[in-house]
Amino acid sequence: MNVLAAVPGWVALVIGALVIAGALLACIGSAGLLRLDTFYRRVHAPTLGTTLGMYLVLAGTIVFFWAGEGRPALHVILIGVCVSITTPISLLLLARAALARDRREGTAGIPAADPPATGADGGE
Amino acid sequence: MTRWLPHPWFALWLLVAWLLLQQSLAAPTIVLGIMLALALSWSLGKLGLPRVRVRSLGTLLLLLVRVFADIVRANLAVAKIIVSPSPRHTSGFVSIPLEITSPYALALLACIITATPGTIWVSHDSLRRVLMLHVLDVVDEAALIDHIRQRYEQPLLRIFR
């Protein structure tokens, strides 16, 4: 609580705006997971929360501890770096698993195993 | 040098991460951090991973700034699609021929494409060098291919050449 008491009112407003904007983006992303229809369309939505949504919340955190404790909490940047590096791994696994299943089941609208290479030499 | 410090960038990253976590620049912290960074990057060298060669640090920083701007723009675009009363059905798969072969450049490209809402990396054919993406809102396929090749691939080729 003493950390919060040291934060001036207008800085608290900035922090609040940053955190709420970030949370709003994460919320829209989660809503997108519900609203969009196919699997491939759905996996796009949560990336809102893991990118700009996360950056905004992290920025709010840094400003909060900067104003409250007098030094920037730069170590929260590590969270951003680690999330940015690890999100692609799970997303890629999910997308590849879905693609493999859809190809096996012959779902319509899924490209075949070897899509024609436009521009590059096509092998045949 | 190569023998004892096979992955200098990884060692530097470990040291920076350690100092950030400790939130201190005291001499014992730095010494312990350097020891940890050296030992862990040396053990990574034992795994036999290819070495990272960053040729142009300036290009890398420029690319990161550019990607950040793209992430902000893409976030707003995707949020708009989700919030709109009837989300458009213009999504589809896009195949992009790539020149990149360096595994680190490909990994960074995967991070960039995933971090940009609206595009996900689906598969990469390393023999044919074709990358397949799924795109939420395909407006102009040729423009998208050009965007990824000019804006991301060209700098990556310069960085990891």
Topology summary:
The complex is a heterodimer of chains A (about 120) and B (about 160).
Chain A: H1 2-5, H2 9-35, H3 39-42, H4 47-50, H5 52-69, H6 76-105
Chain B: H1 8-22, H2 27-45, H3 57-83, E1 92-97, H4 103-115, E2 119-125, E3 130-135, H5 141-159
Antiparallel strand pairs in B: 1-3, 2-3
Helix pairs in contact in B: 1-2, 3-5, 4-5
Could you please describe the fold and organization of this structure?
The complex is a heterodimer of chains A (124) and B (161). With 124 residues, chain A is an all-alpha fold. Chain A has one domain. Chain A contains 6 helices and no strands. In chain A, helix 2 (9-35) runs antiparallel to helix 5 and helix 5 (52-69) packs antiparallel against helix 6 (76-105). The longest helix of chain A is centred in the last third of the chain and has 30 residues, at 76-105. Chain A is elongated and about 60 Å long. Residues 119-124 of chain A have low confidence and may be disordered. Chain B is mainly α. Chain B has 2 domains: 8-45, no CATH class; 57-159, no CATH class. In chain B, 58% of the residues lie in helices and 12% in strands. Chain B has helices at residues 8-22, 27-45, 57-83, 103-115, 141-159; strands at residues 92-97, 119-125, 130-135. Chain B has a 3-stranded antiparallel beta sheet, with helices on one face. In chain B, helix 3 runs antiparallel to helix 5. The mean pLDDT of chain B is 87. Chains A and B meet through helix 2, helix 4 and helix 6 of A and helix 1, helix 3, strand 1, helix 4 and strand 2 of B.
